[in-house]
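Dataset card, provenance and construction

Sequences and ligand SMILES were collected as paired inputs. For each pair, a complete structure of the chain with the small molecule in place was predicted and serialized as structure tokens. The example below shows a pair involving magnesium ion. Curators did not alter the output after generation; any descriptive sentences attached to a record were derived from the structure itself.
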Amino acid sequence: MGIKQAIKVENLNKHFGEGDTFVDVIKEASFEINKGELVALIAPSGAGKTTLLMMIGCLEEPNSGKIWLGDELVYHDKWLTKETRKIRREKLGFIFQAHYLVPFLNIIDNITLVPQANGVEEKITKEKARELLKYFDIAEKEKAMPSQLSGGQNQRVAIARALANNPQIILADEPTAALDMQRSVDVVKMLKQIATQQDVAIIMVTHDDRMLEYCDRIMKIEDKACVFE
Ligand SMILES: Nc1ncnc2c1ncn2[C@@H]1O[C@H](COP(=O)(O)OP(=O)(O)OP(=O)(O)O)[C@@H](O)[C@H]1O
Ligand SMILES: [Mg+2]
């Protein structure tokens, strides 16, 4: 049997700036998240939610501490690999506040981009992408460009893209911000289903209390540390 831990953080610290511009964001954060868990991350604006996800996602360098992704220690006071991009590509799916679809690729090519870069056959990546687009009710948009879709449709494509890769960990920064209530609930329920069925760990930032009942645990940032409710 494999290990249960998907994300482990120990004594993680992050500040920005120096002198007059110094801001302490995360101080001595320690926690573990298991495979199969959907964890909500809630805290006021500016508390460090995005910064925390970016550090776990190997996109923002901490100042000190440790980060494990699965059983791999990826950060110990420095990145332990030069290839943080490889870790992102192989282990992580991202859904950002601003969805960052590639503007000059059509919808289906946006979704198949990462799995194809990972060497998965085009036939398989296209099949998976079409299944996801159908699920999100935008199957007819596969040839459209991101600029031709509404904000909510683009958000759904961004979620589909994060799933295309079958990642072990999904980091979602307000994935339902641009969606109506019913679609938000659908998306969160679907994230929970993915977590359970595919043994994926998901951290989801949300400002919507109505989504919390679908999550397994609620993590907060309090006094710059991470605590579970
Ligand atoms: N690149 C940066 N340089 C300097 N300060 C930064 C940088 N990124 C974030 N910060 C600061 O770090 C703090 C945490 O920001 P962060 O974006 O993580 O907050 P958040 O909890 O995601 O907020 P929101 O709910 O508004 O998205 C803020 O004070 C912010 O100004
Ligand atoms: Mg944020």
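Derived descriptions for this record:
The domain at 5-228 is CATH 3.40.50.300 (Rossmann fold).
The pocket of magnesium ion (ligand 2) is lined by residues 49-50, 97, 173 (CB under 6 Å).
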